[in-house]
């Protein structure tokens, strides 16, 4: 205790006695017991009241300028801002922005005494957090809060940061000709021009837009971002159980969404073009988890293949030898993908003759294998290929994704 008294006396002398109970007590947590730093500081001042020639507080606190006396008023300001915002949230986190002068004076004390306490910002945030949790009947959440409340002591304004909402599900794309995400016009880059009929888009709608429009409407969100477990080409359908995705909604005002009703609204709005399944609320970690999974899974495709020369069922048996594929980045995506050779595995192949120049191909393979190029050979950039094995040029007429196994 003597060492604590000596340290407290040093701080009081440095501040010429002008230090509030909180700023004094903050330097001695957890060395001194107490329900908060104000109680710790008060205990110290009582213990030091018999000390001679110890200056007493005659002015505002040297460190905080008696900022803690304004906590009640600032709290009321925060509560008013939250109530007026009409934002729905179940948990929150508090932050504050303080004048540099306060932070600098805190550092001066640390440098002169040689020991460092918890920061004043941390204490203010904690006090606001405790009071708001009681008043709002909400929980403080440090890792993934619905909302962050920022009290700016410099501008005397309250800022409410609404963190994103994440919905995970699967989508089925039932028609061809729709991209997965919004595709900006390649001429004007989204600004709007004659080429895109001033829409700013290459295609009038996308899977993302058809799904997000209703979610934004129901949540009151400002914008969306779509994160898919890979993507299919525009002319490819996504069937079966659908492709996993996470839809990120930024600044949602409503979080308690009825997912069953929302699913129906999305599907009705999509008019048979896109269908969503298994919507559920998830954490932000699923955003990267779903995207990462696209090359870690196996996928099943159905292709209608056209061959230059006539074929028979016996000719197609050789396609069962498709196992390990060395595929150089396809020509059609080489402008946006690194030029390298990817090694992918084919698990199963099934074929069925349609006529002398066409057959059905069902193939189960590792994610990241380009099927159209597996069929065509892509000028011998994919080895082996359907073309090389059959000894006749083959092309993919139609392609569907039947399964994304995650």
3D structure, described in words:
The radius of gyration is 32 Å and the shape is elongated. Helices cover 30% and strands 28% of the residues. Helix 7 crosses helix 8 (259-270). By secondary structure, the protein is an alpha+beta fold. It has four domains: 1-62; 64-163, VC0802-like (2-Layer Sandwich); 165-294, Alpha-Beta Plaits, CATH 3.30.70.2510; 297-405, Alpha-Beta Plaits. Strands 5, 6, 7, 8, 9, 10, 11, 12, 13 and 14 form a ten-stranded mixed β-sheet that branches. It has helices spanning 2-14, 21-25, 37-47, 71-85, 100-113, 120-136, 207-219, 259-270, 285-292, 313-316, 371-376, 386-390, and strands at residues 91-97, 139-140, 147-152, 157-162, 165-173, 223-228, 237-250, 274-282, 298-307, 324-328, 341-355, 358-366, 382-383, 394-405.
What does the secondary structure layout of this molecule look like, with pairings?
Blueprint: H1 2-14, H2 21-25, H3 37-47, H4 71-85, E1 91-97, H5 100-113, H6 120-136, E2 139-140, E3 147-152, E4 157-162, E5 165-173, H7 207-219, E6 223-228, E7 237-250, H8 259-270, E8 274-282, H9 285-292, E9 298-307, H10 313-316, E10 324-328, E11 341-355, E12 358-366, H11 371-376, E13 382-383, H12 386-390, E14 394-405
Parallel strand pairs: 1-2, 1-3, 7-14
Antiparallel strand pairs: 3-4, 5-7, 5-8, 6-7, 9-12, 9-14, 10-11, 10-13, 11-12
Helix pairs in contact: 7-8
């Amino acid at each position: 205790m003597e060492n604590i008294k000596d340290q407290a006396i040093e701080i009081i002398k440095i501040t010429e006695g002008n230090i509030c109970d909180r700023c004094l007590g903050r330097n001695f947590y957890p060395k001194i017991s107490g329900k908060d730093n104000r109680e710790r500081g008060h205990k110290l001042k009582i213990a030091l009241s018999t000390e001679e020639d110890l200056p007493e507080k005659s002015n505002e606190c040297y460190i905080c300028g008696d900022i803690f006396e304004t906590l009640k008023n600032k709290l009321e300001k925060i509560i008013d801002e939250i109530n007026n915002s009409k934002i729905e949230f179940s948990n929150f986190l508090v932050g504050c922005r303080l004048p540099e002068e306060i932070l600098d004076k805190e550092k001066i004390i640390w440098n002169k005494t040689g020991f460092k306490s918890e920061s004043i910002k941390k204490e203010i945030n904690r006090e606001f957090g405790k009071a708001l949790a009681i008043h709002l009947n909400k929980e403080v959440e440090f890792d993934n809060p619905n909302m962050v409340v920022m009290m700016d002591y410099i501008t005397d304004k309250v800022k409410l940061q609404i963190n994103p909402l994440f919905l995970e599900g699967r989508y089925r794309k039932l028609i061809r000709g729709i991209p997965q995400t919004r595709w900006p016009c390649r001429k004007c880059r989204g600004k709007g021009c004659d080429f895109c009929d001033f829409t700013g888009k290459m295609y009038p709608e996308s899977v993302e837009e058809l799904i997000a429009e209703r979610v934004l409407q129901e949540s009151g969100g400002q914008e969306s971002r779509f994160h898919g477990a890979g993507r299919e080409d525009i002319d490819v359908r996504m069937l079966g159980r659908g492709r996993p995705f996470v839809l990120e909604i930024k600044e949602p005002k409503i979080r308690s969404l009825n997912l069953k009703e929302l699913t129906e609204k999305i599907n009705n709005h999509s008019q048979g073009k896109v269908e969503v399944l298994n919507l559920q609320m998830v954490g932000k970690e699923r955003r990267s988890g779903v995207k990462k999974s696209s090359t870690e899974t196996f996928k099943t495709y159905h292709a209608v293949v056209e061959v230059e020369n006539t074929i028979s069922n016996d000719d197609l048996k050789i396609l069962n030898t498709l196992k390990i594929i060395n595929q150089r980045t396809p020509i059609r995506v080489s402008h946006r993908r690194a030029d390298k050779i990817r090694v992918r595995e084919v698990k199963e192949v099934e074929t069925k003759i349609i006529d002398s120049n066409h057959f059905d191909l069902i193939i189960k393979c590792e994610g990241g294998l380009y099927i159209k190029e597996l069929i065509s050979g892509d000028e011998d950039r994919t080895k082996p290929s359907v073309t090389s094995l059959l000894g006749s040029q083959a092309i993919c007429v139609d392609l569907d994704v039947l399964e994304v196994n995650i």
